[in-house]
Amino acid sequence: MLPPRPTDGIPETRAARVVAIAGNPNAGKTSLFNALTGAARHVGNYPGVTVELKEGRARGARSPFTVVDLPGCYGLTAYSQEERVARDFLLCHHPDVVIDVVDASNLERNLYLTAQFLELKLPVIIALNMVDVAEKRGMRVDHEALARMLGVPVIPTIATRGTGIDHLLETCEQVLDGAFRISPQPIRYGHPVDELVVELAEKLKPVADMEPPLPTEWLAVKLLENDPAAWKRLKEHGNTTLTRGVESAQKTLENHCNRDGASILAERRHGFAAGAARQCVSRQASGQREVTDRIDDVVCHWLAGPALLIGVVAALFFWVFKLSDEWTWIPWPGEWKSPTGVIEACFTGVEWLISPIESPFPMLHSLLHAALVRGVGGVLSFVPLIFFMFLFIAFLEDSGYIARVAFILDRLLRVFGLQGKSMLAMLIAGGIGAGGCAVPAVMATRTLREEKDRIVTMLVAPFMNCGAKLPVYAMLIAAFFPYRRTVMMLLLWGLSWVFALCAAWLLRRTVVRGEQTPFVMELPPYHLPTIRGVLMHTWERTWAYIRKAGTIILAVNIVLWAFMYFPRPVDVHATPEQQLRYSMAGRVGTLMEPVSGLAGFDWRTNVALIGGFAAKEVIIGAMATAYAMIDAPDSGPDETEIATSLSGKLASDPAWNPLRAFALMLFIMLYAPCMSTIAVMRRESGGWRWPIFSLGFSTALAFLVAVTAYQAGLALGLG
Q1: Whole-number pLDDT of residue 237
Q2: Can you give the residue ranges of every domain in the chain?
Q3: At CA 557, angle to CA 555 and CA 559, rounded to 5?
Q4: Which run of H or of E encompasses 542?
Q5: Which residues in the chain land under pLDDT 50?
Q6: Angle 531-548/29-37 helices, nearest 10 degrees?
Q7: Phi/psi zone of residue 450: left (φ > 0), alpha (ψ -120 to 50 degrees), beta?
């Protein structure tokens, strides 16, 4: 369905000067967006658009204009969510310029989308990107000839290096200012398509003039290829005579070519793209294989590939812990021995600053000490860990290795009933190790055309080790497995895949039955990631973690503190632990203890897990808050690190042991997705059925796994 044309909700500056960036996946669209906007970007709120679109101000422009990054897609036929979003934005929000990012090394494939932009008669500027990759492959693209052929500017660029960006920016400004007029050449489809399009376009003017207005020839083409949105527009007009005329034109076309209209139009577009590529590309003979192919012989090998993947993940975990918390080679005193130690020392200083108010204002001191210092401070102490994890993940993403991981694991996924493209969502959720997020992972399921493939992937992707779970794992591992950090993280990574695949297999044979669709994926060439691009991606994700700690987690910690503080016992001499047990949270946690005790969870753990429904990071803050509230009154900021850290408190608590910690990590791995994920899941699935099912299914599975692990450990004498 074509959404209504927006009239409100878009700032005037945005509506007047908008440049949209579009193109195929892996064409360098994101790199170009980053080069144009830098760090000055945010998520745009566009009416009628159902997904988040990145938006930023162009850097270095004489007069500012807005740049919008559209989803990567291969066409505008609206088969996938990305195609619908891109097309609806172009039709309804009328960008002043469309920058079509074209991969110079795959010109023919990319020009298929360009042909559809020309059908819309959009003011297109082609960014002929990755010309360096094309040259390495022995290809030279005559961009001037291509510009003459298409009737649009063609600017050679290397987005990762910033090459051609100034020229592209200058051309955009000329078009926006009216100094340069773009006149796209019309696409010719040959007989009888051209005749039918001209005939229908004249008749369709009343339909095209409806809101939002559409190009008549484009609407005619879409009706000939039986586009559902175009047909809905025609039926809304209510002219039955015109409807019969379109149907007659379809039959004429099909009878002439012995195929349906969609196949005919697709073939003609491919022919146009192939012809343009042949005329504009010259090739040099080379007897050497490309570097990408030689690397892929190892990376994509059926045996060497998985072995290399395990090695990459193990190295990732090793260096993340080494760089974030083990700077032992630097002779700094005390806690100032690592980035994590620096943050912990800062919050120890804050604790010292608020200590004078403990006597006159005990309730305020308890709030600040428990919810802020120990709660938020406990979460922020893992910022270095999160930063280095995201840094390595960003490097692997930008290098092209992540796409190879999807290829390597495709065969495995199919055994368990998942579609090959499901791998992309799993990797985004944290499947490469940790540090992902289930929210964009659920959104990534839009690329799956089969609805049941989308649902299954949506349900199991949250089992991956996202960035929110990583600090909780790190805290428990530091307490009970301090000398096996890499091994434990590698084990948790492997178990997350095992549980996700087994759950997918079960769901495919019970509640979500259906046929699997084939997997087609392009492997981009390897790139050496730019320092700026990697740091930008890392900072975006790290800042999102910090922002969550200062907003959602702080708010939840305050609420949990109130539940842990009120009501107060009548006995003024009650111990801190007695006071906490008397509170509302203590009562709820104690009420759950007979059942949760099967998995080794006590009442404080129960309270923390309830808070984890909001966000998994809250678990650390909630447990830190609980332990802070039962600290001895005379404990002060001069305590040793092992006494002040949550890991140290758990390690010194006789009620805790490695078995209990392992069962808790398994439960956290699998139990209910956070509220943000649930909200996105509702939006993507179109209702509450599957989000509610996910809450129940994942929590039940988590409890079953945790109880089994804990009881088995007790039976083996490990408790």
Answers
A1: 82
A2: 12-176, 193-283, 532-715
A3: 70
A4: helix 531-548
A5: 1-15, 42-50, 287-288, 632-644
A6: 80
A7: beta
Taking alpha carbons only, the member of 113, 77, 380 closest to residue 230 is 77
HEC sequence for 464-493: CCECCHHHHHHHHHHHHCCCCHHHHHHHHH
Distance (Å, whole) CA 618 – CA 608: 7
Residues recorded for the chain: 719
Choose the CATH number for 12-176 among 3.40.50.300, 3.20.20.140, 3.40.309.10, 3.40.50.720: 3.40.50.300
What gap in Å lies between CA 617 and CA 608, rounded to an integer? Answer: 10
In terms of Cα–Cα distance, which of 425, 405, 424, 416 is closest to 501? 416
C-alpha 425/C-alpha 440 separation (Å) is 8
- pLDDT for 527 equals 77
The DSSP bridge pattern shows strands 66-69 and 18-23 to be parallel
Burial code (b: 16+ CB inside 10 Å, e: under 16) for 216-229 equals: bbbbbbbbbbebeb
3-state secondary structure of 108: helix
| CA 165/CA 466 separation, integer angstroms | 35
Regarding pTM above 0.85, the answer is no
Assess contact for 429 and 401: CB atoms under 8 A: no
Q: How far is CA 91 from CA 25, 232, 531, 571, in A?
A: 21, 15, 36, 69
**Pairing state of beta strands 53-57 and 66-69?**
antiparallel
Residue with tokens 């095209």: 208
pLDDT at 9 (0 to 100): 33
Question: Quick one: tokens of 482?
Answer: 């301090």
What residues are paired with 20 via a beta bridge?
A: 68, 98
- Residue 236, Cβ neighbours under 10 Å: how many? 10
Structure tokens at 503: 């759950």
Q: Let me know: does 344 contact 381? Beta carbons within 8 Å.
A: yes
Q: What is the pLDDT of residue 673?
A: 92
- Write the DSSP string, 390-401: HHHHHHHHHHTH
Q: Could you read off the pLDDT of 230-244 as tens digits, one per residue?
A: 888 888 887 888 888
Rounded distance, CA 443 to CA 344, Å?
35
In contact, 110 and 75? CB cutoff 8 Å: no
Contacts of 16 (CB under 8 A, 6+ apart): 96
Residues 678, 689: Cα–Cα separation, whole Å: 11
pLDDT score recorded for residue 208: 84
Query: Tokens 């960014």 map to which residue?
Result: 127
Angle, helices 658-670 vs 603-611, to 10°: value is 20
CA 25, CA 478: separation in Å to the nearest integer?
A: 40
Q: Which CATH architecture has domain 193-283?
A: Orthogonal Bundle (1.10)
**Looking at this protein, which amino acid is placed at residue 74?**
Y
Q: Can you say whether residue 17 is alpha, beta or left, with left for phi > 0 and alpha for psi between -120 and 50 degrees?
A: beta
| 602-to-13, 126, 588, 605, 667 alpha-carbon distances in Å | 56, 61, 11, 5, 14
Distance separating alpha carbons of residues 629 and 620, to the nearest angstrom: 14
